[in-house]
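The aim of this short unit is practical: by the end, you should be able to scan a pair of folded records and say something sensible about each. We start with the first protein, listed as its amino acid sequence and then its structure tokens.
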Amino acid sequence: MIAERNRLARDIHDTLAQGLTGVVVQLEAAEDALTLGLTRETSEHIDHAKELARASLNEARRSVAALRPEVLERRTLREALEAHVRWVTKGTCVRAEFVTRGTPRPLPAAHEEHLLRIDQEAITNALRHVRDSRTIALRLV
């Protein structure tokens, strides 16, 4: 398990390093083109930098999906969910409400990972679209 984790970590590092290097190179080329007044070339370099960044992000997501989230190695799913909602709302005007009901039961690791990722996406979307309501409620039943 540790050897596989180290291999994946190297792959992720290499992928991100290559992708970010490409982004930096394209942005520097865009800067040079902008200095020379080459509008079309500037735009092309920026577009390419965005493509590289998106591709790198997708590759990183694919690689990371293969790893068990570290937080689930240190905490129960309930603890991880509660910590996440409190962490992302800390210092904001949004109030986090976390409620559980029933007796916790063990779940397969894959189910816990999916629930954690669903929580992360849902909380991010809620924060992005919060308007009149200033409460985010997470309920496990």
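Turning to the second protein, read its sequence before its tokens, just as you did above.
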Amino acid sequence: MPDDDNPSKVNLSQVAAKDLTAGRDIQIGSIVQKIVYLGLPFNSRHLRFVQLLTNLAYLTCWMWGFVRLWQNGADFTTLLLLIFGSGLFSLTCLYYVWFWKPEVQDKSAPSSEPPDSDQWIKTQQIKQRLRQQTRRSAIFGMVAIPLLTYSGFLLWRSLPLTNVLLLVADFDGSNQQNYQVTETLLRNLRNATEAYTDVKVQALNQTITEQQGSDAARAAGEQKKATIVIWGEYGVTPTDVQLSVHYELLKPPEIFPELGDEVDGKAQTQSIAELNSFKLQTRLSNEMTYLTLFTLGMVQYAEEDWESAIARFSDALDQVKDPVPGLGQDIVYFYRGNSYEAKSDDKNAIADYTQALKLKPDYVEV
């Protein structure tokens, strides 16, 4: 009779195959367990305590990632926390669903109770129920954690903006520590917008070069749901400094005038003395603050909040005395005059329109 027709040999082969599969799963499970539980072996006396601590640590990373997502946007640290927390917690759940084999350990472990006794059977039933509950919870966690992570990220992306976020990239140039271009810009912007609780100024903490261009700046801004990204670079020679500035408006109001090339990367050459005396840094920060406050005023203007628009336009005009190439003060006077007119404040409206015409006599809209 062929061997395949011998039932005893077939049964032995099936048992051997099952034992081989179980042994392989235990080996893989041991590797996974070492990853998620800091390398402690199965027989560690402190394993359950370490399991509890590591699971809490993974959940804390995951939850803290969402807190940072809502507060700071999708920066590198936030994404790392979300991936680390959800990934390792999901891997832990997978370990309990697929590789956790306590019943195999129970067979080889010595028992103080005689097999098949009532107490032994009762103990085994309790252990079986706990294993089933653990595996069901692990299945739920393995599915729920990645799903919640993805859904939470999509929800954050879809939420409307409640604040205006202004990002300032590190200006690319030599001797940044001595010239403090980025630091001066950040400090003045924060001081000027301190009174507005709906405005946040943040350092991007990265340089955006001309080679990377506007796409890189916009991508960095979209990651954090920013409204404005300011970036640029400067080069220094023994006599001159060449500066280029980009004022990226990611979410412009419905009505917004076109800005000049001077805030879209056009190179501006200044004397090196301007940089050494910090006049260039001060002028740059004042001009960027002026543009930012005007933008904030236009946001309120679009929402027909005339009082807030007038306050922001007025603060913008207070920032600069000399003409600003990127956006003339005549435009600010025009929109502030419109705001006064909408409030039926004809006296102030006429005064602003008159001032706009002094600055630009051929201003047709005025």
